[in-house]
Amino acid sequence: MSEQPATPPKSLPLVLAEPRGRKKPPRHLADLTDTERKDLLVEMGLPGFRAKQLSTHYFGRLVHDPAEMTDLPAAQRDELVGALLPDLMDPIRQQSADKGKTVKTLWKLFDGSLVESVLMRYKDRATICISSQAGCGMACPFCATGQGGLQRNMSTAEIVHQVVVGARAMANGDVAGGPGRLSNVVFMGMGEPLANYKATVGAVRRLTDPAPSGLGLSARHVTVSTVGLVPRIRQLADEGIPVTLALSLHAPDDELRNDLVPINTRFSVAETVDAAYEYFAKTGRRVSIEYALMRDINDQGWRADLLADVLAADGRGTSWVHVNPIPLNEVPGSQFTRSREEDMDEFVRRLEAKGIAATMRDTRGSEIDAACGQLAAAE
């Protein structure tokens, strides 16, 4: 470790409470089921069947401008849109990289909270990385978001809207490469998704419900990341939605992980890996292990060996898991720096030598404050 290791709190709560009296985000059709959307309009004295039309515009046609909803009566259009499609967030800053194929957006929510999303276009897919909280309460010292603490949870609709806007940008050809389709969603932006469990699962359901109920994405193309909230991992396994689970481990031993991921003082490496394996056993979905490589801190060859041993312990074998070593996105002024290329290569080699599938993460947008939280912090 470094000379001044982070001092983790003795106990981190599973879900951090938000201040009482905080104003809630506007209610949006993405927060509601089909039945709830219809019932809301009926309660307002509006035709219930219009809910499906609004849902078709939002999820099916990726339209948000009332002027384009010509199948709605002009006299009721504003009222209908105001009831189920209120404005949720405004883009206040945007950066692009990789010849326009990586686009990072800083959003201002209704209460002034700031969150970020990143749209990345590859040859075979388009992926959006989204936020689930404004800030984060997990306090990982190498993470830009963790340094700022938690402002609040995002609503289901606020989470979903990042994806819908990204899908619209792809469909309209606003991303370099011409019109295309958004195919993948990763909950790896600001926040700990499983600390905002209800909204995260609600968002996953909206994203995977067939249009016009939802966006109609494949659950297998949705990845939910966590630092290791063990009870929530087990709960997610029982939801019946076969998303990919990504466990941000970052260290194979408790001594180091206590410093890097403070929730480890509550749920040890062994407990966390056990829960991840249980997720695989119940869902059949191979788990991703995220491992940010930090120079002379967690990138030693012996730690790669230990990581392989921990993952394969208790007769689990190696087929259930895939490791993604990640070159650290450095935060200005931080004591944590990116590993040397030769050390990263050796780390992957040592994992593969023990039968662990490992792929070095392709880091996008390093010149545009790629680490989530950096753009918000600068603003």
UniProtKB/TrEMBL annotation:
InterPro entries listed in its UniProt record: Aldolase_TIM, Methyltransferase_A, RNA_MTrfase_RlmN, rRNA_lsu_MTrfase_RlmN/Cfr, rSAM, rSAM_sf
EC number: 2.1.1.192
Subcellular locations according to the entry: Cytoplasm
Annotated [4Fe-4S] cluster binding sites: 136, 140, 143
Ranges of residues in domain Radical SAM core: 122-366
Cofactor remark from the record: Binds 1 [4Fe-4S] cluster. The cluster is coordinated with 3 cysteines and an exchangeable S-adenosyl-L-methionine.
Coiled coil: none
Sorted UniProt keywords: 4Fe-4S, Cytoplasm, Disulfide bond, Iron, Iron-sulfur, Metal-binding, Methyltransferase, rRNA processing, S-adenosyl-L-methionine, Transferase, tRNA processing
Family note: Belongs to the radical SAM superfamily. RlmN family.
PANTHER family in alphabetical order: 23S RRNA METHYLTRANSFERASE (PTHR30544), RADICAL SAM CORE DOMAIN-CONTAINING PROTEIN (PTHR30544:SF5)
Functional note: Specifically methylates position 2 of adenine 2503 in 23S rRNA and position 2 of adenine 37 in tRNAs.
UniProt name for this protein: Probable dual-specificity RNA methyltransferase RlmN
Annotated organism of origin: Nocardioides aromaticivorans
